[in-house]
Amino acid sequence: MLSSSGRGITEAMLAPVTRALVRRRVPATAVTVTGGALTVAITLALIPTGHLWIGALVLGVVVLVDSLDGQVARATGTVSPFGAFVDATTDRLVDGVLLGSIVVYALRHVPGEQGDALVVAALAALVADQLVPYTKARGEAEGFAVGGGLAERADRLVLVLAGVLVHGLGAPAWVLTTVLALTALASLVTAGQRVAQVRAQARRSTEAS
């Protein structure tokens, strides 16, 4: 939802940065890789060590500029399948590192059953999160149009970072656990919606043949 509704606002906010990158002839793929590496470094430095609220805020800013590479590519006419591939691969790495870092945080800093529950919720969110883009990639590989759904990547990231932020500001661990469980559920629903899209198109194709 946020991926589509917030795109215009984000593009307007980042327009000066986009123009500066275009003037300096910075390739869109370089923006993708640099942003991904920066996000991974920030995540590994702050989340496992318990610096949650500052980590959530900094990563929130990084998420806000996630579309910068696409803006540069469109502005320079360099949109390409390879660029999309690099972008999607980087996104999977970033998402996995974020949720994996929460697992490490839970193991280090949250004792007892609350820690166990947080680990399970984070792992569930990690697995379900990876399932969403897989359904899209596999469906498109088979020739179907796949996309949308209850919770796209931006929605899931906002949920996770909001949970990290409020827990970092003092909310009990079960709050973050609940947020991660809801993220996992939303991811499964989204994946299910995309499976339904493929099934409907496959049925129409069969009936037409």
Brief write-up:
Helix content is 83%, strand content 0%. By secondary structure, it is an all-alpha fold.
Number of helices: 9
* Class from helix and strand fractions: mainly alpha
Which fold name corresponds to the CATH topology? Four Helix Bundle (Hemerythrin (Met), subunit A)
What would the average pLDDT be, to the nearest integer?
Answer: 92
Secondary structure: helix percent: over 70%
Give the radius of gyration. Answer: 18 Å
How would you characterize the overall build of this protein?
- The protein has helices at 2-5, 7-23, 28-46, 52-64, 68-76, 81-109, 112-141, 153-168, 173-208.
- It has one domain (2-208): Up-down Bundle (Four Helix Bundle (Hemerythrin (Met), subunit A)), CATH 1.20.120.
- It contains nine helices and no strands.
- The two termini are 34 Å apart.
- By secondary structure, it is mainly α.
- Helix content is 83%, strand content 0%.
